[in-house]
Amino acid sequence: MGNITRAAAFGLGVTMLAGYAGTALAQKDGGILKFYHRGTPPSGSIHEEATNSTLSPYMGVFNNLIMYKQDVARNSLDTIVPDLAESWSWNDDGTELTFKLRQGVQWHDGKPFTSADVKCTWDLLLGKSKAKLRKNPRKAWYKNLEEVTTNGDHEATFHLKRSQPAFVALLASGYSPVYSCHVPPKKMRTAPIGTGPFKFVSLKQNEHVKFTKNENYWKEGKPHLDGHEWTIIKSRSTRVLAFIAGEFDMTFNVDVTIPLLKDVKSQAPDAVCELVTTNVSVNLIVNQDNPPFDNADIRKAMVFAIDRQAFIDILGHGETLQGGAMMPPPSGVWGMPPEVLEKVAGYNPDVEANRAQARKIMEGLGYGEDNRLKVKVSTRNIAVYRDPAVILIDHLKHIYIDAELDTVETSNWHAKVARKDYMVGLNLTGIGVDDPDANLYENYSCGSQRNYTGYCKEEMEALFEKQSMMTDQEARKKLVWEIDKKLQEDAARPMIYHTKAAQCWQPYVKGFVTHVNSLYNNWRLEDVWLDK
């Protein structure tokens, strides 16, 4: 079977586009796009961070080999287009993915981009290079990657241990930029250099992050903006009011909650706001490495204590969604439908019956009104984390667990939970790609830095691999539902709800499209322009 036929069998296609076509609209060049930001980014190194606090402002510094189309709201295998690669193709057995690279591309410091940079990036992610990443949250995405080889300066091949049809979905994420061989990881954290449409200018703690136009960008006619700036305002209500007052052109990445959206609509009726699913779940994380939470029964009792609908009604005004690990339909491709979800243990809508079962479990372990379990519930010190954490603490009281809130600053949060320095946590998990390979390997696979609870089962690892190799996507979906059901019933990382939030911008901002099944892939900003 030839390359093109094999790729078509995977349902991925082969893209052979020699150029990157721009739109025919009469865009205006110039102007600084002004955002607000919710907090100082922990660093400028996308590969080392697990938060859109870094990705959203810094994605425009870089390019990928391939990327999701910025003007299509729903990411899928069909919306992947060339970026630093002109084309890509699979070998006959689906274990080698070869990219033909663009020529004449330069890094921001003028050095040429070559295939060596591609190899250096994934050697860094695999831990094979002399230089080391301080954090490597998505290393688990590449468990199946054996190595990257080069053939001259303009061809790179990814060698997989087994077939993985959705591997290209991972490479298209905003979390998969190409780094340079000649810039060490330490510098990428503080003064990153890329090939992208914008250059990093400066970061000042608790004040701003600034970027300027790359005048030598290899995509002709782009970017349209002279730059973009992000002013850091920690108070959510203050920053949204500043947007309403016209001080900012855009809000931070889907920062406007459903309650706040009503304020924006009433006070700034001309603002463009899109309420979307985000592929971010609010979930309970429990450190399974330390007692008493190494006991599966306690974790199961905690699952039964959660009144998911209460979270949805209070925080989401009834509009956020119940689901398992995978983002629920209709926006999510892989999530369990309601008729499957309702059969999962803990999803019975009879909350009192669930809690009675939880108390029985706890009493069997020696807990009760006279012997209550004292815990700390850690969470990130921003409103979208704190608000549900307070509700979680109230729910745990119903099953003899008294919890104290422990807030952690953004710059420390992911590192803290990655090293298992917590008891119980209220976490938000954003998935870079709406595909099981991204979610299952990153958040539930043995040894992953993002597997914050320490969940690890060999039989589940085998199922992860089985679904990853499947070419029949409908059959794969049914297996993913079975996996998801098991993860919820194992209390691997119990899901509370899946979020919706709004992205807002002033009416003169053009060319921006909010994505509906990941908030990490549409921040290149090279197509955005100001009509003023």
Structure description:
- With 532 residues, the chain is of the alpha+beta class.
- It is built from 16 helices and 17 strands.
- It has helices at residues 3-10, 52-58, 115-126, 167-171, 185-190, 236-244, 258-267, 296-305, 308-316, 338-341, 351-364, 383-396, 410-418, 436-443, 458-469, 473-489; strands at 32-37, 66-68, 80-82, 85-90, 96-101, 145-150, 155-160, 198-204, 208-213, 227-232, 272-286, 373-380, 401-408, 424-430, 495-505, 509-510, 529-530.
- The strands form five sheets. A five-stranded mixed sheet has the order 13-12-14-11-15. Strands 1-10-9-8 form a four-stranded mixed sheet, with helices on one face.
- It is globular and about 70 Å long.
- Residues 1-24 have low confidence and may be disordered.
Give the arrangement of secondary structure elements.
Layout: H1 3-10, E1 32-37, H2 52-58, E2 66-68, E3 80-82, E4 85-90, E5 96-101, H3 115-126, E6 145-150, E7 155-160, H4 167-171, H5 185-190, E8 198-204, E9 208-213, E10 227-232, H6 236-244, H7 258-267, E11 272-286, H8 296-305, H9 308-316, H10 338-341, H11 351-364, E12 373-380, H12 383-396, E13 401-408, H13 410-418, E14 424-430, H14 436-443, H15 458-469, H16 473-489, E15 495-505, E16 509-510, E17 529-530
Parallel strand pairs: 1-10, 12-13, 12-14
Antiparallel strand pairs: 2-3, 4-5, 5-7, 6-7, 8-9, 9-10, 11-14, 11-15, 16-17
